[in-house]
Design goal:
Blueprint lengths: L153 H6 L20
Length: 179
Amino acid sequence: MQWVNFTKVNLSEADLSVTCLCGSILYEANLQKAILPEANLQGAVLRKANLSQAILYDANLEGTVLCDANLTGAILCDANLEGAILCDANLEEANFEGSNLQDTNLIGSNLQRAKLAGANLESALLSTANLQEANLQEANLCGANLSGSENVESQQIEQAIGDRTTILPENLKIPQHWR
């Protein structure tokens, strides 16, 4: 099933497990506390959508547009967000543990207290993102761009995996174990 062009639709707390919403346009949709495990949202447009506290583990969000979306406290463990666009999204306290965020655009996003342990952020764009207290333990930052990222501590970077292609904010140095 493919949904197209639903603006401001209210699907709050709906059970959409294993649903296919590929290519759907859900502009300003309310999906707060929606249940979407294993859902396929590949290429969907959820700009300014409310997905706070939504359950999206194992979901396919490859190439999905989530600009200005609210994913506060959402559970996205083991989700595929490769190439997704989450610029200026609120991802505070979202759980991305084990997720694929390769080539994802997170510019200007709020990742405060987000759980990114074991996530693949290879070649992700994190410029001007707020990473205050984000858990980056064992997160793959190889080739990621964190220039201008805010509130990043050296301790967070030390716990992550990176290499010489990782671009860090000017105030941080490449950890010894990355070389």
